[in-house]
Specification:
Strand order of the largest sheet: 3-2-1-4-5-6-7-10
Order of helices and strands: EHEHEHEHEHEHEHEEEHHHHHHHHHHHH
Radius of gyration: 25 Å
Distance between the termini: 87 Å
Structural class: alpha/beta
Number of strands: 10
C-alpha cells in the first residue's frame, strides 16, 4: 500500500537535510540513493526514528508513493538528471510529477518541461537556496515549470520553506525555466555581494590597517543597520575564528576562489539579453583572476607596489564612507539583477512577479537581507517599475551614499587596492544617470569602418544615416 507523499532521489548533504525538513513537517518521504551504503547510513543515523522510508531501487521508490506520484531529484545537474528522468519515465504514469531541485541550467529545464509535458508527466524546475542549514531548517524555494504541478507540491514546499513575517519564502515563479533562471540570478547577485564584502575587507585590512578584532566589530555594527544580511553576519563570524596557533584563520586561507558556474551563466545570459550586468560580471572575473595565483606571484615581483602611502585620515569617517559605498554598490547589484530578470521575462513570456521574488529571497537564502523588504515595497507600489534606481526609497539611499561611495573608491585607487566591483557599480550608476554618453563616437566609428549607419539627435528615432567619412575628412 503506498505510504509516502513524496519521493526523494539523492542523499548528499542537501538531499538528506531536505528529507529531514520534510519529515519534521509531518510528511512521509521515501528516499533512494544509488549507493545502498549511503541510504543505510542515513536511515540508521540522522533519519533514525523518523517516518522516512528507505528504498533500494527506483521501482521500490515509485511503489511507495501516493498518486499523483511526486519524485524530487537532488542530484548533480547535467546528464545525470536526464538519465534519471529517462529511468523514471518507465515507471511513472500520466499526471505524475518530477521535480528537479538541483542547480540545473535553465535551458535544460525549458527543454525537460516541454518534453515531459508531451509524455503526460508534469515537470518542475525548482531553485533551492540556503545551503545545508537552509535545507534543514527552511530554505528559499523558487518553483517553476509546468504550473499544473504547483498545486500538488505547494503545501509541502511552503511548509518547509523559511518563513518571514508569517509568509513562506516560496512562491510560484513562472512557467518553463523561470524557477531555475531566478535561482541563477540569485546566485549571480550572491557572487556580487560576496565580492563587495571581500573588497570592503581588503580596504579595511590593507588600506586602513585594521586588525581582525576591529573588523569583526565593524561587520557586527553593519549587520545591525542598513547592511543587515546573512553574508555580513557570517563575515563577522569568520573574522573571529583563530587557527591553532592563535592567528586569524582567514589569513591562512589561500586566496584562490572557486566557482560552480551559476555566476558565469548569469553573466552569459546578461550578454545574450543585452543587459549591463557589470558588477556581477566583475565578481565572476575577480574569481577568475584569483585563480591565477602563480602568475600573480610572478607579476607582484615584476611590478612591486610602489605606492607606500599610509592612511592618515580619520578611520571612523573612512569606515562610514566604506559602509555607504558598500550599501550603494549592493543596490546597484540588485538593480542590475532585476533588470536582467525583467528582460528575460519579456523574452521568454514568464510574466515574473518581482515583488514575489523579493518576498521569496527575504529568508532562507544566501542573499537574504533587510532591504529586500524595500524591493518588495517598490514593486508593490509599481509593478511596472522600470528600474529599482527609479524608486523613491532607492533614490534617497543612493543620494545619501554617493559622497562616501566616491571617496572610498578614490582612496582605494590611491592606495593601489583593487576594488573592481565597487568601481564597476559606480561607473554603471554614472552611465545610467547620464543624459548623453560617448556612444555617439562609437556609432561614428562603426559607420566609418562598416557602414553600420547611425541615428541623429535632430531627427526622429528610427531614421538611419550613413556618412562617407573618408571623403568628408
Amino acid at each position: 500500500m503506498p505510504k509516502a507523499e513524496m519521493g526523494l532521489i539523492g542523499l548528499a548533504v542537501m538531499g538528506q537535510n531536505l528529507a529531514l525538513n520534510i519529515n519534521d513537517h509531518g510528511y512521509t518521504l521515501a528516499v533512494y540513493n544509488r549507493s545502498k551504503e549511503k541510504t543505510d547510513e542515513f536511515v540508521s543515523g540522522s533519519a533514525k526514528d523518523t517516518h522516512i522510508i528507505p528504498t533500494y531501487s527506483l521501482e521500490e521508490l515509485v511503489a511507495q508513493l501516493k498518486s499523483p506520484r511526486r519524485v524530487m531529484l537532488m542530484i548533480k545537474a547535467g546528464r545525470a538528471v536526464d538519465i534519471t528522468i529517462d529511468a523514471l519515465l518507465l515507471l511513472l504514469d500520466e499526471g505524475d510529477i518530477i521535480i528537479d531541485g538541483g542547480n540545473s541550467h535553465f535551458p535544460d529545464t525549458v527543454r525537460r518541461t516541454q518534453e515531459l509535458q508531451e509524455k503526460g508527466i508534469l515537470y518542475l524546475g525548482t531553485g533551492i537556496s540556503g545551503g545545508e542549514e537552509g535545507a534543514r531548517f527552511g530554505p528559499a524555494i523558487m518553483p517553476g515549470g509546468n504550473k499544473q504541478a504547483w498545486p500538488h507540491v505547494k503545501e509541502i514546499y511552503q511548509s518547509i520553506a523559511a518563513q518571514v513575517d508569517g509568509a513562506p519564502c516560496c512562491q510560484w515563479i513562472g512557467e518553463g525555466g523561470a524557477g531555475h533562471y531566478v535561482k541563477m540570478v540569485h546566485n549571480g547577485i550572491e557572487y556580487g555581494d560576496m565580492q563587495l564584502i571581500a573588497e570592503a575587507y581588503q580596504f579595511m585590512h590593507k588600506g586602513l590597517g585594521l586588525d581582525h578584532m576591529k573588523m569583526q566589530q565593524v561587520f557586527r555594527e553593519w549587520d545591525e543597520g542598513i547592511l543587515n544580511s546573512y553574508l555580513i553576519e557570517i563575515t563577522a563570524d569568520i573574522m573571529g575564528v583563530k587557527d591553532s596557533d592563535g592567528m586569524p584563520l582567514l589569513e591562512k586561507i589561500l586566496d584562490t576562489a572557486g566557482q560552480k558556474g551559476t555566476g558565469t551563466w548569469t553573466a552569459i545570459s546578461a550578454l545574450e539579453q543585452g543587459i549591463p550586468l557589470t558588477l556581477i560580471g566583475e565578481a565572476v572575473f575577480a574569481r577568475c583572476l584569483s585563480a591565477l595565483k602563480d602568475s600573480r606571484l610572478n607579476a607582484s615581483k615584476i611590478y612591486p607596489n610602489s605606492n607606500n602611502s599610509v592612511f592618515e585620515g580619520d578611520v571612523d569617517e573612512a569606515l562610514n564612507a566604506l559602509r555607504d559605498a558598500l550599501y550603494a554598490s549592493k543596490i546597484i547589484s540588485y538593480a542590475q539583477g532585476f533588470m536582467l530578470m525583467q528582460q528575460a521575462s519579456d523574452e521568454y513570456g514568464w510574466n515574473l512577479d518581482y515583488g514575489n521574488i523579493a518576498l521569496t529571497w527575504r529568508g532562507g537564502c544566501i542573499i537574504r537581507s533587510r532591504f529586500l523588504n524595500n524591493i518588495k515595497q517598490a514593486y508593490d507600489k509599481n509593478a511596472q517599475l522600470e528600474n529599482l534606481l527609479l524608486d523613491s526609497f532607492f533614490i534617497d539611499a543612493i543620494n545619501k551614499s554617493l559622497t562616501g561611495w566616491r571617496e572610498t573608491i578614490q582612496k582605494a585607487i590611491g592606495m593601489a587596492i583593487p576594488i573592481p566591483a565597487f568601481s564597476s557599480a559606480l561607473s554603471f550608476f554614472d552611465g545610467y544617470r547620464s543624459e548623453r554618453t560617448s556612444a555617439n563616437l562609437l556609432q561614428a566609428q562603426r559607420d566609418y569602418f562598416g557602414a553600420h549607419t547611425y541615428e541623429r539627435v535632430d531627427k526622429p528615432r528610427g531614421e538611419f544615416f550613413h556618412t562617407d567619412w573618408i571623403n568628408n575628412k
